[in-house]
Each structure stands twice: as C-alpha cells, then as structure tokens.
Design brief:
- The protein has 121 residues and is an all-beta fold.
- It has no helices and eleven strands.
- Strand 5 and strand 6 form a beta hairpin.
- The chain is elongated and about 50 Å long.
- It starts with a strand and ends with a strand.
Amino acid sequence: QVQLVESGGGLVQAGGSLRLSCAASGSTFSVKIIGWYRQAPGKQRELVALISSGGTTNVIDSVKGRFTISRDNAKNTVYLQMNSLKPEDTAVYYCNAEYEAYTGTYVYTDWGQGTQVTVSS
C-alpha cells in the first residue's frame, strides 16, 4: 500500500510563489504515476499536473509556464513549484498516486486532507 501526505500550502499575494510537497510512504517502488489535483470552493476537483515513474511530466494549460512538477526519489517526495500565483489558483491541493497493488492490479491512493493554497489579489 502507498500513503501520501501533502504539505506546503499557505497564504500568498498574487504574483508570489509556493512549493507544495507530497511525501510518499509504503510500497513506493510500485508507484506508476503521481498527480497533483486541486479543488476550489464550489468547483469540481481537477487535475493540475502529473509525473510518471520515468519522470515524464504534464501540466494543464492554465498553469503551464507557472507550475512545475518534480520528484526527489531519494526522499520519496513529489513537489509542485507554483510561481506567478493568481487568485484563481486558490484551492485545496491534493496529491494522488496510481500504484500496483499486491494483486497485480493498478489502484489509486485514498484522498488525503490536502493543503490549502490561498492567493490574495
């Protein structure tokens, strides 16, 4: 099993930066892909960025050029560097992983509490 814990959120002014961390524990060798998601008040949760076990990354168009996803394998941690933050980036940010369970099937981690990011104008 794989467990994830998010951290690093906070209150920042528009144009500022934050770095979110997603620390993984458990059977981290079985992880296929980790994603950062966000959910703003009254909106559905959306995918923001993905990173595969091989290091391939993708981010959604609305954050392209501002957000970067990366990983530190030695620390079993995935980061989301967020620059040039905008008020519309305000949301609870979550990470989630797809990993291979002992049954051989791919499953997803449970959703954690997330970390709140608030960008003031």
